[in-house]
Write the structure tokens for this entry.
Amino acid sequence: MKVDVDVPKCVASGQCVLIAPEVFDQRDEDGMVVLLDETPAPELHSAVRESATVCPAAAIHVRES
């Protein structure tokens, strides 16, 4: 799995951080998404997919390997 984020599309809702804090964080100054791990471990894949699904801005993109 490869994860990309489109930071300009992010609306800083923080749902991704709540679901997959090992993979996503938010910038302190504006709450925008920060990608911590673009190739997360297999045990995190389900949470990353859920994060992409619930992202209100569709700013998270997942490519399956």
